[in-house]
């Protein structure tokens, strides 16, 4: 059954806009997540969306350098490493986006003058990389036991030239799209935590993408819940 | 983050155990940990797990102009990233660069630059071996775009046009590490992280399956006898043969899976039966009500507040939007204004004299001792300065740049 689904995913990814415009044809790719796979970090997770794969490791709460310490809450640091080449400006901006999202949910005030470091390594990039990074970071924070007020997930939408909305686009779909929007949503009230957009779109399309993201986030959170239920089923 | 230091009792325990020929994980002296190789969907991407040590290798290529002193050779570049996972002092790139022989021919004034990026994901000892295996596997797995040269024309085919071509690799050198304890009395193959912390020195031998030694490196300042080194090289020969066989098998498996059209990539290498791993198939999302929701939200939303921006052009190059907020810092010190002046004045700007109706009088402060904050707008044919609250006098503005600064400094000294 999984094999059929997998080939289905491939076909759908290739045809892309085979789904009716703005119709119920959007789909998320095959998801997989493995937690606690690295021995050194306090928490780690590997998140796969289709062929995009990101590995996240969390250290914390740990000792912080005096220059970086904040007296009343934890210092959150995000490091994103690309697969090829040295980290550049694009990585820095993504790190900032992810850090802002994490700071909104992590209860830093419970661990003042400590540091929580999230290290993300891009293992393979086949579209919707930022969303995959966000998901991996969230699962790694959960694995590390960092206190959070909500879980968060990332979803990427792409709008192609005739306005069709595609969720969780592949790299080919992202390249041919008119606009690519990534949103981070929390699971308590499905409110928006972070948005990063590239391209041209109208405000109606923005709201449609947001609504689609909220619908998609439900599936992602169900995936989180089921994977954590599986993990703690034997304890 | 600081590394947690190794406690003395742990150190003593490890050394005592080694003296009694016991290792913490139950291995024998010459045993390697389990090696697991998994490939990604792109060519040239692999993850190697040596016990818990994990290294990700990725190979990429591009056409570049060759180095001047080696005009006909390609360039092979290694990069080992040690992220926050660990910070040892070794650089495997050095070892690998010396002996890896890959012929990369010159293609019409450009050569291939092959770049191997190795990322250490988890440090549990023996990074050098893991990194060397990852590099060799990634290079063997990699496919470069096909190129054809016809006279002066060079055509680079995309992977869709023509199947990419593997690199021509002559032999596969693998590093084997030996850790020495108690001044060379005891040795262990493939030390893990704890054993590495208490070792005295490390000997790395890079060999290929034809028993040719490519590199030997000894670090840590241990003094070894000749027969110790020979013994190590014999052990290395055996180990390298085993590892090379493992690599070949993994590469063949992957190739078979790709040819048969089966599933490949990291998604498949996540073990199903592990309780910490979970998979979900493709999920369709119903987005049919997305349009209505969006329209609702837009209808209910308040219109954006009217933003009236009336830009005022003072001089060419100086414009102002809005009035700004009242300065809440209190009285500015002289020194801060000094900095402003130094930054604002630019003698090089010579503008056409466009007389602007500024609407603000040029007030003459007069004496140098004035410390009031006043706005001075200069005539455009004089030295234009940015509008800032500053203490200055008309006299100073006419003078060249350096003088006002000096005068102000004197003023401060006087104060």
Automatic annotation (TrEMBL), chain A:
Exoribonuclease phosphorolytic domain location, by residue? 28-147, 151-214
**CDD domains given in the database record:** RNase_PH_RRP46
**Chief location of this protein?**
cytoplasm
Gene3D superfamilies, from UniProt? GHMP Kinase, N-terminal domain (3.30.230.70)
One GO cellular component assignment for this chain's record is: nuclear exosome (RNase complex)
Q: Where in the cell is it found?
A: Cytoplasm; Nucleus, Nucleolus
Recorded GO MF terms: DNA binding; RNA binding
Going by the UniProt record, its keywords in alphabetical order are: Cytoplasm, DNA-binding, Exosome, Nucleus, Phosphoprotein, rRNA processing
The UniProt annotation puts the region (Disordered) at: 1-23
Xref: Pfam families: RNase_PH, RNase_PH_C
Basic and acidic residues composition bias: residue spans: 1-13
Q: Sorted alphabetically, which InterPro entries does this protein's record hold?
A: ExoRNase_PH_dom1, ExoRNase_PH_dom2, ExoRNase_PH_dom2_sf, PNPase/RNase_PH_dom_sf, Ribosomal_Su5_D2-typ_SF, RNase_PH
- SUPFAM superfamilies reported for this sequence: Ribonuclease PH domain 2-like, Ribosomal protein S5 domain 2-like
Swiss-Prot/TrEMBL GO biological process terms? defense response to virus; DNA deamination; nuclear mRNA surveillance; poly(A)-dependent snoRNA 3'-end processing; rRNA catabolic process; rRNA processing; U4 snRNA 3'-end processing
Among PANTHER family, the record links this protein to: EXOSOME COMPLEX COMPONENT (PTHR11953), EXOSOME COMPLEX COMPONENT RRP46 (PTHR11953:SF1)
**Oligomer status and interactors:** Homodimer. Component of the RNA exosome core complex (Exo-9), composed of EXOSC1, EXOSC2, EXOSC3, EXOSC4, EXOSC5, EXOSC6, EXOSC7, EXOSC8 and EXOSC9; within the complex interacts with EXOSC3, EXOSC8, and EXOSC9. The catalytically inactive RNA exosome core complex (Exo-9) associates with the catalytic subunit EXOSC10/RRP6. Exo-9 may associate with DIS3 to form the nucleolar exosome complex, or DIS3L to form the cytoplasmic exosome complex.
Q: Report the sequence similarity comment from the record.
A: Belongs to the RNase PH family.
User: What's this protein's name?
Assistant: Exosome complex component RRP46
Per the UniProt record, the source organism is Cebus imitator (Panamanian white-faced capuchin)
The coding gene here is EXOSC5
From TrEMBL, chain B:
Acidic residues bias: where? Answer: 331-345
Q: Where in the cell is it found?
A: Cytoplasm; Nucleus
Taxonomic source organism = Cebus imitator (Panamanian white-faced capuchin)
* Gene Ontology annotations of biological process type: exonucleolytic trimming to generate mature 3'-end of 5.8S rRNA from tricistronic rRNA transcript (SSU-rRNA, 5.8S rRNA, LSU-rRNA); nuclear mRNA surveillance; nuclear polyadenylation-dependent rRNA catabolic process; rRNA catabolic process; TRAMP-dependent tRNA surveillance pathway; U1 snRNA 3'-end processing; U4 snRNA 3'-end processing; U5 snRNA 3'-end processing
Query: MF terms per GO, please?
Result: mRNA 3'-UTR AU-rich region binding
- Region of interest (Disordered), residue spans: 317-345, 364-415
Q: What is its main location?
A: cytoplasm
* Gene symbol of the encoding locus: EXOSC9
- This chain belongs to the protein called Exosome complex component RRP45
Instruction: Name the UniProt key words of this record, in alphabetical order.
Output: Cytoplasm, Exosome, Nucleus, RNA-binding, rRNA processing
């Amino acid at each position: 059954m999984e094999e059929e689904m997998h080939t289905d995913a491939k076909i759908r990814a290739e045809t892309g806009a085979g789904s009716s415009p703005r119709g119920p044809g959007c789909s998320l790719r095959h998801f997989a997540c493995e937690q606690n796979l690295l021995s050194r970090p306090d928490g780690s997770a590997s998140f796969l969306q289709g062929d995009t794969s990101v590995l996240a490791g969390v250290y914390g709460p740990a000792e912080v350098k005096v220059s970086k310490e904040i007296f009343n809450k934890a210092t959150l640091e995000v490091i994103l490493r690309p697969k090829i080449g040295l980290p550049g400006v694009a990585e820095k901006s993504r790190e900032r986006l992810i850090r802002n999202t994490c700071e909104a949910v992590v209860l830093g005030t419970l661990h003042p003058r400590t540091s929580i470091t999230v290290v993300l390594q891009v293992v393979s990039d086949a579209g919707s990389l930022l969303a995959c990074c966000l998901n991996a970071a969230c699962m790694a924070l959960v694995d590390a036991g960092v206190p959070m007020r909500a879980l968060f997930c990332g979803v990427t939408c792409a709008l192609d030239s005739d306005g069709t909305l595609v969720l969780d686009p592949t790299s080919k779909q992202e390249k041919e799209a008119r606009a690519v929007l990534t949103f981070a949503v929390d699971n308590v009230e499905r409110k928006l935590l972070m948005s990063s957009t590239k391209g041209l779109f109208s405000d109606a399309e923005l709201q449609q993408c947001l609504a689609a993201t909220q619908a998609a986030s439900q599936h992602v959170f169900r995936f989180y819940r089921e994977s954590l239920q599986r993990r703690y089923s034997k304890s | 983050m600081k590394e947690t230091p190794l406690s003395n009792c742990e150190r003593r325990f490890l050394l005592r155990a080694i003296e009694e020929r016991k290792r913490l994980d139950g291995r024998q002296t010459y045993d390697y940990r389990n090696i697991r190789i998994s490939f990604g969907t792109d060519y040239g991407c692999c993850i190697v797990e040596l016990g818990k040590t994990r290294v990700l290798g990725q190979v990429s290529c591009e056409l570049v102009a060759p180095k001047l002193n080696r005009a006909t050779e390609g360039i092979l570049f290694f990069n080992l990233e040690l992220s926050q996972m660990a910070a040892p002092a070794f650089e495997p790139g050095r070892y690998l660069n010396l002996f890896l022989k890959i012929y990369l021919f010159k293609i019409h004034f450009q050569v291939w630059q092959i770049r191997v990026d190795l990322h250490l994901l988890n440090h549990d000892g023996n990074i050098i071996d893991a990194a060397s295996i990852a590099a060799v596997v990634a290079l063997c797995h990699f496919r470069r775009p096909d190129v054809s040269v016809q006279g002066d024309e060079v055509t680079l085919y995309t992977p869709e046009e023509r199947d990419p071509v593997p690199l021509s690799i002559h032999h596969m050198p693998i590093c084997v590490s030996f850790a020495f304890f108690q001044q060379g009395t005891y040795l262990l193959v493939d030390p893990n992280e704890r054993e590495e912390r208490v070792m005295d020195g490390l000997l790395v031998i890079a060999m290929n399956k034809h028993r040719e030694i490519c590199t030997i490196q000894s670090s840590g300042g241990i003094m070894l006898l000749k027969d110790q080194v020979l013994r190590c090289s014999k052990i290395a020969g055996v180990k390298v043969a085993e590892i090379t066989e493992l690599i070949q098998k993994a590469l063949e498996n992957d190739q078979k899976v790709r040819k048969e059209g089966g599933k490949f990539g990291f998604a498949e290498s996540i073990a199903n039966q592990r309780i910490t791993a979970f998979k979900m198939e493709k999920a369709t999302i119903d987005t049919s009500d997305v349009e209505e929701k969006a329209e609702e939200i837009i209808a209910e939303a308040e219109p954006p507040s009217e933003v009236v921006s009336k830009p005022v052009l003072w001089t060419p190059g100086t414009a102002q939007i809005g009035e700004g907020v009242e300065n809440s810092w209190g009285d500015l010190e002289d020194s801060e204004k000094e900095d402003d002046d130094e930054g604002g004045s630019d003698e090089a700007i010579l503008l056409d004299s466009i007389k602007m109706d500024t609407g603000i009088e040029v007030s003459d402060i007069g004496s140098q001792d004035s410390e009031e904050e006043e706005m001075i707008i200069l005539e455009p044919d004089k030295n234009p300065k940015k509008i800032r609250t500053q203490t200055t006098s008309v006299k100073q503005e006419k003078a060249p740049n350096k003088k006002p600064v000096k005068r102000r400094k004197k003023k401060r000294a006087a104060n």
